[in-house]
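Objective 1.3, modelling of assemblies. Example input:
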Amino acid sequence: MARLKEIIFCVTNRCNLRCRMCDIPHNKTEELSTDRLKQVITDAARLGFYTFVFSGGEPLLRDDIFELISHAKASHMTACLTSNGHKIDDQVAGRLFEAGVDVVNISIDGPQQIHDHLRGKGAFKTAIEALENLKKHKIEATVATMVCRDNYENMPYIVEFSKLYGVTTIMFQPFSRLFVSDKSREKEFFINKKDLDNAAGIIEEVIERAGREHISINPEGYLRRIPSYLSGEPVGLRHGCEGIYDTCSIRSKGDIFPCWVINDSDKLIGNVGKTRLFDLWDSERHKRIKRMVEEGGCPGCMMSCYDEVFGPNEQKKTHLNKISKLKSPRAYSRLINRLIQDTRGIMAHIGNRYRFYRSYRGSLKAVFKRLVKRFQRSVLPKRSLGKGEISKALQEIKIAKKRLEREL
Amino acid sequence: MDYLKEFETNLAYHFSEVLEYLFARPYWVYVSLSHKCTYNCQMCGVVKILKGYELPRETLEKALDEIAGWDWDCSVILTGGEPFLRADIFELIDYAVRRGIPVESVSNGSLIDKELAHKIISSGLENIAISLDGAKEATHDSIRQKGSFSQAMNAIRNLVLAKEELGRGPQISVWTTIMKENVTELYDIIPLARGLGIDCLVYHPVVVAQDDMQNTSPDAPFWIRQDNLKLLKGQIDKICDYQDKNGLVAFLHDPYLWVKHFEGALTRQDWKCNPFVFINIGPDGEVRSCGSSFGNIGKRSLDDCLHTKEAHKARCLMKKCQKPCLQTCWAHPVSDSPIFIADALIKRLKEDKVGTEKKREIIEKAIAALERYEDIAK
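Predicted structure (C-alpha cells):
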C-alpha cells in the first residue's frame, strides 16, 4: 500500500469573495456537521494520513474551524488551511495559533490592481493583512497563485512579494477548467499562441529569481509546461503522480472521488456524511475504482502538488547530459565549479524547503517517530490464531447472517 | 441508529478478541490518579505496590484528549488511592466533561463533607461510588479503619442532600466488596443503603492480592472458605429476591457465580472477560488490562500503548486465562458470539416494535457490518 499523505477536505462551499476563476461559491451549500467532520478527521488519522488540509470555499467562514483544527492536531496530523485571508486579523491569527494550525496558505494573484480585478475589490488588502498577522504569530504561511492570462506577467512580482513577507514556498497553479462551470468563460483565462515566447521567458525569470531568493516553487519542469498548457494544448500524463493512492479529496457534501480531476459519477467512492471514511477507504468499491482508473487511464492534469520532486533532479539530469558530451579537461573543471555552485544553491534551497516541509508534514523527528510507530504496529507478534478458530468465526458469522436475513 | 451502534460495538469487541486485532477501543478506562489514600485498607494493594506515584496532570490531559478523539463510547473512572485527595480533581473532571467524556469516580467518603459534596454533585460526574463494606460499624471499621463507617455514611448523606438541593447530579452508588468478614451482612447493606437514598448498589468479590488476581487459595485472607459458602448462598438468595421486587442492586454478572468463584471452581466457560473492554492506567502511568503493562502514557500516547507488542502479548495471555476474577471490569456477555449479537439485535427490534422499513434498513446495515468482518477473517 502506498504511504498515505494528505486528505483535502472542502469543508464549506461558502465564500466571502466571488472570484472570476472559481464557481465553487455558486454551488449549493451542503456541509457536514462538526461531529461528522471530527469523525472524518479521527478516521483519517487512524488510516495513517499525515496531513489534513482544510479547504473551501473559505474555510474560516465555518464557526467550528478552530475546533476542527485542534481536533486534527490532537489526532496527531498536521493541519493546513487554505484561505483568501478573510477575517485573519490579530485575534483570529492568535486563535489559529492556539488551535495549532501548521500552515496557512494564502492566495495572492499579483499586485493590488490585478488581484482585486480577479478576486474583488479590497481582497488584496485583506490578504496582506492576513500575511502580516500570521507572521506576527509565527505561523508558517505559504502563497498560492492562480496563473492565467491576466496575471502571468506578474509571476516574478509574486516571488519578490513573498521574499518581502518571509514566505518560503509559493505554489503556482495555472487556471483550471474544473472550477468554472460556464464553459464559454474559459477563453478569457487562456493566453494567445503568440504570447508563448513571452510567457516562457517569464517562467525562466521566475525560476532564476526564486533560486536566488531561495524560495521554493513548483518543480521547474512543471513550471515550463505552464505556457503551453495555458495556450490550450493538452497536458501529457505526469510521471510519478500517486494521487489516487495516497491522497484523498472530499467535497463539502462529503463525496469522495479518486482525485480532483476524476469526478465522474461512476467513480464516486462514497460519501463520508453517510458512511465512515474508515469503511470507505480501501473498500471493495474503492479498490475497483482504482483499478478502473489504472486500466482506463488518467486524463492528466496541471494541479500543483507540494510534494513533487524539486528542481535538483532536473539539474542532475542536465549535468549528466553535459558529462557525456565533455571533451577537454578544462571543460571538466568548469563543470565541477558549476556543480559546486549548484550544490550550494540546492543546499540553501533544501534548508528553506525543509522549513516548509517541517510544518507541512512534521519535523524529521516527528516523521521518524511516525515511521517507527508504523513499524511497531506492523510487526505485531505472530497471531496465535489457529485455522480452526478462524473457520469457527466464519461459521458463526454465517449463522448470524442467516438469522438476520430471515428477519428481512 | 442506536441499535446499529450497539450491534457494531459488540461486533468490534467480539472480533477484536477473536481475530486479535484492535477493532475496538475500551469501554472503561480506569484511571488511578494517585497512590495516596486517607486509609490503609488491608485488602487494597494500590497503596502498597505503587507507593510514591502520582499521575501528572498534563499526561492525563493528553490521554483525555485522545479518548475524546476516539469516537468511541468510553467512560473514564477516576480512582486512587483516594481520588479526592488530589487538589486538581475537579479541573480534571471538568476537562473531560468538556470533551464529552462520561466521568465517574470512586471514593471511600472520608473527605466528603457538605462543601465537597456540593462540588461533586455539580461537577458533571455521571456516577459517584462510595465503598461500604459492612452494614455494621464494627465490620466496616475492622476492614478499613476506626471511624471509617461513620465517615462513609456521612459522605453518602451529604451527597444525597446536595443532590436533592441542586435537583440534579450524578448517580450515587455504593460499592461493596464481598469477603469473609462481611458475608453475613451483605443483604443488610441493602436496607441501610436504601434508607440513605442512594440510586444503585454494586457487589463485587474481593481480590486477595492486587499483584496476583488469580490468587484463589482458600488460605488467603478475606477469602470465604468452603464452610461459609452456604451463608453466601443464603445471602445471594435474599439479595436476588430483593432485586426482583425492588431493584436498586445492579448485577454485573450472575450473582451465583460468586459461590463458584470462592469455591475456586469458576472457569472460562462460566465467565470470561474481554481484554479489549477495559484498561487501567496506574498512578505510574502504566497502561494495563490485566497482567503486564502495555506501555507508559508518560512516554507514548495512549493509542500507541494499545498497539504495542506488549499489549498484544498481554491480551493473548488474558484470552487463555482460566480463572476469571469477576471484577468490575466486566465483559459484554452478549459479545461472546456474533450469533448472540445478532439475536440481541433482533430481540431489541421486536421489543421496540420498530417499523418494517426502518427495521429492514437496520438489518441490511447489520449484515453489511458482518460481511466486513467476514472479509477480514477470510
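Chain B has 14 helices and ten strands.
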